[in-house]
């Protein structure tokens, strides 16, 4: 059989397996936060179908199809991974697991982790058993991420960590944290280490932050004499910035994907005639940008897989994707009129439209602001002076 | 696609080398403008397109061409745009060839086109805005053929063309796509009055007046009353091609501007150090990358005959038009006073973007088409 025939038969096999194993409820579009499966030690499944779907995908390693099988992955080639994603999209299958472990920590461990660390942490990530959060941002640091102050004192075989993180996504629901700490004050970026520890460790506490949307996806996180074994350092001590930067690239890829809103169709598709000519024109203009960005996303992913992407391209994608997502929700609000202003009525599904709209305003702040992304493009791609 | 094959990369390199050497503003655009050339382009260069095989890029191999698709065409056109190279490549080698392909007229015209000897033009618009369905120019049956009466404008290379593809109405009413017939009219046809007009970018487009122009029945491309099909093929190829050329215009202007930001000093600093300019340059980079991805996607879908191709062609034309406009205007602004002079090349990008942006439908036409094709 030729390689192409192999892929054709793989596609047929995937389609058959998904049809047989993806429960019908898991083929409905995601409507609310509770539809999303995050896994973890204390995972609450909103339906038996949600758990059944996660178990089925885990059994094949398809929560992380392109990871090696030894680490809980599916061992698929890039072409096979693409086919799996295409077939899932074709059937409308939901992602079985949302996970910072998969999208952020996993790639960093694959690149920088020791074999012991990979074997210890990756399989539980793949199976959705441990939910991770990211301890990067600190009060007063913001976009100047490397100015972080949380310190880790060397006590021989372990560190004692003290300090505070902020904007820690879902810290109150996470089992473990991957965290940047200062192990040396000699240089700004050169004194940072990347450590992993259990959120149940003595001295860790979290407090949710209520946002303008009424949601609390972020927390303040406090460390008070937390003991962290040195074996939990990823990469070299004082070289954590390399790991952090690599991981940020993956975070930006993930966030840039949100510009698609999970949809590949025009925003105006299926709504019928739009009477207001100005609104119609604005939506049409948005759809031009949005559909063009969809093409760019596809191109970008192919570039990544072919190893042809410029390392700073995730910054461009994050910038463009998140600005687009904000525009999308401005238009949804405009089209919805006064209906879209209802905050907690049943008709408005608990104010989904205005809450989602408000939520998107964080897209261009979190994971590096749009201004930071533009700085990175100016410096690393355009090579403008002094940038 | 989205990742180029080795063959496509080679073609791209060849086009890059050829046009950066022979197609420059100094050798072509500025030269022909300054000597007041009636065609607005050089026939020698068009002949070179033929010698390199590029003029026959879309002509089937069996008829002496390279038999390549919209993706390869886009790779050449991006370089044409980058160098602002004036030539009949888009109208002749891309749009006209797609219209003629498979018709009885292909045998007559393809050898000359592939050799870089023949120039073809597309006569579609009758008003000041692109509206192909609004075609009103009348074609009445007469003897063995038809008599054409009416007017066309914005016929790019119309006065230089050996062959003019004319959309005319044989049935129905303006606004309807049925009842349009596409005719191949040869230059010097009796009753055809040609007003050769220089446009803002120093290219030439004609206003044509048809006063009972007699054509034979075998001048019909495709079917009588069914001209929308070959016309649509030509327009799709032309629009996707113009999108790719606009990406080149955008990228050429942006490269020129970024170089300037690295050289020009003000207040004792390179102006490229100023964050206000860095952010605009980075935003522009983002817009151009996205426009290129859209142009490539449109070309890929056209080559596959995918049903989403028409939507993506309009997305690409609108997006690339806006990216080129932004790039040219930011380019002039960031160049400051020198950017306003005729001596500097950056202004040519603004002029070219305006003409190419309007050709085969501007960004509003195509955004509206995106809305229509999406059902709103």
TrEMBL record, chain A:
Keyword check for Oxidoreductase: yes
Domain Acyl-CoA dehydrogenase/oxidase C-terminal: 238-382
Cofactor annotation: FAD
Domain Acyl-CoA dehydrogenase/oxidase N-terminal: 9-129
Domain of life according to the entry: Bacteria
Keyword Oxidoreductase: yes
Pfam families for the chain: Acyl-CoA_dh_1, Acyl-CoA_dh_M, Acyl-CoA_dh_N
Domain Acyl-CoA oxidase/dehydrogenase middle: start-end pairs: 133-226
Secretion signal, residue range per the UniProt entry: none
Family: Belongs to the acyl-CoA dehydrogenase family.
Protein name in UniProt: Acyl-CoA dehydrogenase
From TrEMBL, chain B:
Alphabetic keyword roster: FAD, Flavoprotein, Oxidoreductase
Keyword Flavoprotein among UniProt keywords: yes
Domain of life: Bacteria
Coiled-coil residues: none
Acyl-CoA dehydrogenase/oxidase C-terminal domain mapped to chain residues: 226-372
The keyword ATP-binding is annotated on this UniProt entry: no
Stretches assigned to the Acyl-CoA dehydrogenase/oxidase N-terminal domain: 5-117
Domain Acyl-CoA oxidase/dehydrogenase middle: 134-213
Cofactor(s) essential for the protein: FAD
An example Gene Ontology molecular-function term: acyl-CoA dehydrogenase activity
Family: Belongs to the acyl-CoA dehydrogenase family.
Name under which the protein is recorded: Acyl-CoA dehydrogenase
């Amino acid at each position: 059989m030729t390689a192409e025939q192999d892929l054709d038969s793989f596609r047929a096999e995937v389609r058959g397996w998904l049809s047989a194993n993806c429960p019908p409820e898991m083929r409905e579009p995601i409507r609310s936060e509770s539809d999303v499966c995050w896994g973890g030690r204390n995972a609450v499944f909103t339906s038996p179908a949600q758990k059944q779907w996660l178990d089925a995908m885990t059994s094949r390693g398809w929560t992380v199809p392109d990871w090696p099988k030894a680490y809980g992955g599916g061992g698929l080639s890039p072409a096979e991974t693409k086919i799996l994603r295409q077939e899932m999209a074709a059937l409308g299958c939901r992602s079985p697991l949302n996970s910072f472990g998969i999208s952020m920590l996993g790639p960093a461990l694959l690149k920088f982790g020791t074999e012991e660390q990979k074997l210890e942490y990756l399989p539980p990530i793949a199976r959705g058993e441990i939910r991770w959060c990211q301890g990067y941002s600190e009060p007063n640091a913001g976009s100047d991420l490397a100015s972080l102050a949380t310190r880790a004192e060397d006590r021989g075989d372990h560190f004692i960590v003290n300090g505070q993180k902020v904007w820690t996504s879902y810290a109150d629901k996470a089992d473990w944290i991957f965290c940047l700490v200062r192990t040396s004050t000699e240089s700004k970026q050169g004194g940072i280490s990347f450590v992993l520890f259990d959120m149940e460790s003595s001295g860790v506490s979290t407090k949710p932050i209520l946002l303008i949307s009424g949601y609390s996806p972020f927390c303040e996180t406090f460390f008070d004499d937390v003991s962290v074994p040195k074996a939990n350092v990823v990469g070299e001590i004082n070289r954590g910035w390399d790991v952090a930067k690599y991981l940020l690239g993956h975070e930006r890829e993930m966030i840039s994907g949100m510009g698609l809103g999970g949809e590949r169709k025009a925003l105006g598709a299926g709504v019928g005639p739009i009477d207001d000519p100005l609104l119609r024109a604005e939506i049409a203009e948005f759809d031009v940008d949005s559909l063009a960005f969809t093409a760019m996303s596809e191109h970008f992913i192919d570039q990544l897989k072919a190893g042809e992407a410029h390392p700073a391209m995730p910054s461009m994608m994050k910038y463009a994707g998140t600005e687009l997502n904000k525009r999308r929700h401005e238009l949804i609000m405009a089209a919805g009129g006064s209906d879209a202003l209802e905050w907690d009525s049943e008709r408005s599904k608990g104010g989904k439209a205005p809450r989602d709209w408000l939520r998107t305003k964080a897209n261009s702040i979190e994971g590096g602001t749009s201004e930071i992304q533009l700085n990175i493009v100016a410096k690393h791609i355009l090579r403008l002076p002094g940038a | 696609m989205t990742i180029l094959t080795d063959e496509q990369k080679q073609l791209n390199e060849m086009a890059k080398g050829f046009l950066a050497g022979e197609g420059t503003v100094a050798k072509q655009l500025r030269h022909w403008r300054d000597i007041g050339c009636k065609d607005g382009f050089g026939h020698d260069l068009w002949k070179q397109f033929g010698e390199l095989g590029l003029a026959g890029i879309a002509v089937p191999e069996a008829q002496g061409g390279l038999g390549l698709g919209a993706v390869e065409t886009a790779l050449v056109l991006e370089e044409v745009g980058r160098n602002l190279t004036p030539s009949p490549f888009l109208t002749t080698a891309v749009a006209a060839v797609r219209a003629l392909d498979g018709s009885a007229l292909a045998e007559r015209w393809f050898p000359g086109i592939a050799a870089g000897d023949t120039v073809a033009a597309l006569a579609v618009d009758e008003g000041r805005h692109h509206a192909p369905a609004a075609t009103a120019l009348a074609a009445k049956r007469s003897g063995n053929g038809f008599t054409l009466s009416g007017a066309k404008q914005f016929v790019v290379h119309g006065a230089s063309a050996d062959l003019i593809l004319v959309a005319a109405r044989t049935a129905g009413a303006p606004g309807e796509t049925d009842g349009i017939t596409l005719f191949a009219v040869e230059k010097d046809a009796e009753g055809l009055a040609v007003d050769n007009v220089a446009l803002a970018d120093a290219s030439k487009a004609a206003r044509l007046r048809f006063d009972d122009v007699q054509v034979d029945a075998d001048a019909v491309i495709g079917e009588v009353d069914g001209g929308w099909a070959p016309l649509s093929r030509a327009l799709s190829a032309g629009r996707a091609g113009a999108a790719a050329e606009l990406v080149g215009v955008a990228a050429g202007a942006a490269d020129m501007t970024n170089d300037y930001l690295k050289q020009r000093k003000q207040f004792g600093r390179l102006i490229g150090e100023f964050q206000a300019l860095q952010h605009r340059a980075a935003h522009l980079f983002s817009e151009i990358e996205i426009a290129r991805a859209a142009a490539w996607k449109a070309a890929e879908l056209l080559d596959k005959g995918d049903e989403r191709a028409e939507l993506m062609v309009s997305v690409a034309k609108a997006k690339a038009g806006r990216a080129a406009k932004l790039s040219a205007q930011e380019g002039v602004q960031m160049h400051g006073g020198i950017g306003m002079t005729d001596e500097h090349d950056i202004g040519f990008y603004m002029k070219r973007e305006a003409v190419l942006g309007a050709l085969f439908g501007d960004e509003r036409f195509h955004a509206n088409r995106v809305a229509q094709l999406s059902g709103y």
